[in-house]
Amino acid sequence: MRCARVRYLFGLGLLACMAVLVLGGCRKDYLDVKHGDRLDSDRFGTQDEDVPLLVEGMHSYIYTANYDPDYCGVQSLHLMYDMLGDDLINSSMGNNFHISEARWHAHVSPRSNLSYVPWRIHYHLILNANKGLTALQQHSTDSEAYYRAMGELLALRGYSYFQLVQLYGQRYVPAGDNSGLGVIIRSGTEPDYSSARRSTVEEVYQCIVDDLDKAIVNLKRVTRGAKNHINLAVAYGLRARVALVMGQWEVAAAMSQQAIETSAATLQSGLSLQDGFNSITATEWLWGYSPSTGQNEGINSYFAYMAWNYGSTNVRSNPKVINQTLFRTMSLTDTRRQWWDSTGKRWLPDVHYRHVKFQSFKFAVASGNSSQGDFVFMRLAEMYLIRAEALARMGATAEAQRTLTTLMESRDSEYAGCTLTGQELVEEVLRNRRIELWGEGFRFFDLKRLGADLDRFAAGNHNPTVSGIMELPASSARWQFKIPVQEVDNNPLCVQNP
Question: Has residue 286 been placed in a domain?
C-alpha cells in the first residue's frame, strides 16, 4: 500500500511562530541553513557530490533540534520516554527538570513541550525527507551516492513515522483490529495549511514498512557508510523493530539476523562496556551521532542529565537510578552491574555530587567540564534481543536459547547458557532487554507494545512524591500523547486523543 497523498499543514515559518508562542521563544540558530535542515530542490544539481547534501543536515538535525532548554534533539526525548517507564528513576525532585514529564503530566496536555516537540521534530524530518526524495527523483542518477541518499531518506521518513505512531497513535495489536487513529501521513514538499485526517494505525504501519523495505533495496546497492548515517544494517535493524511491534516474528527474526550479519559490529565485553558508553567508535554501535565541537549543547545536552561525571546541577542534584528490583536479578558476575552503583558509595568527582544507591554510571562524558558525547541510536545487542524474543515467540526454542546465550556470554563470564523454554524464555529475554537498553529510550515503547500495566511499586525505590503516578493500566488513554493544540486548532479534521 502506498502512502496516502495528503498536503503538509505546518510550514517552517508557522512552526517557528508556534515555538515562540508555546515555548516562550525559539533559538534562531536551529532554523539556520548551516545545520543543513532545509532542503530546497533547486539547490541541487545532477552531480554526485551534490547528492549527500540532501541527507547530511537531517542527521545533524536529529541531534540539534531544540526549542527549549528542556529538550535537545531526539536523544533527549529518549530520556523522557524512559522516564515514563518503571526502570529509569529520578532520585529526587532536583531542579525540577523533566519531573513533570516523568510524572505523566506533560504529555497528557496538548499545550506541553513533550506533546509538541516530538511532533515538531519528526514532521520536520518527514518534510525534509519528502523534499529530498522529490529532488532526487527529478535529478536521478545511477550512482552510489544517489542510492545511498534515497535509502537514507526513506529510512529516516519511516523511522519518523514509527516514532510518531507509537507516541500519538493507538497501540498496534498483532493480528487484531488496527483501524484506530494513528497519525497524519504527509507527502508534501511545501508549506500548506489545509486539512488532513489522521490515518489508521494499520495504514501508518504499512507506510513505515513500505519506506523501510524500499530503503533496504536502495542501500543494498552501496557500501557501508559511517555510523552517523543509516546504512543497510541499520535499515534492517529498523525493519526488525517495526516487525517486533507488529508481532511479525518471522520477519523480526530474519531482519535482526540480517542486521547482525550485514554490520561490521561485534559484541563488547568486560571493561569495554564500562568506559563511558559515549563513543561512536564502540564496536557494538550500529547507528549513532558524533557531534562536532561546535555542537556542544551544554546544559541542554542529554549528558547533562545522564552523565555521572558531568558537572551540571541536573546530575549533581538528581542522579538517575535503576529499578532496584530489576538490578538485583543480575548475577554477581554480570558486567552490566557496573553500570550502576548498588552501594551509593562509588567515587564521584567532588563532594557536591549526591551519592544514591543504584545510581547510573552507564553514561559519561570525556571531561566533566564539557557535555560533549556521542549518542547511540542502535546497538548490536538490541538485534540479538529482538531475534531472541521473536524466535522464542514463534516456538524456535533452541535457536532462541542460542541467540540469547551468545549475547549473555559477552556480558557474563560465568553464564552457563540459557535452558528456559516457553513463556519463561520470553520473560528472560524481556528482562535482559530492560537491563541492556536502560536509558536508551525503549521502556515506554516496550510497555505499550506489550500491553503491560505500569507498576512502579514493584521497583521498591520509586518515591511517589517524585514519580507521581505509580500505577497505570494498559487500557488507559494516557498511553497516547496528546496531539499539539496548534495542530488541532488549525486542522479541523485532526481528531484529538481522548
Answer: no
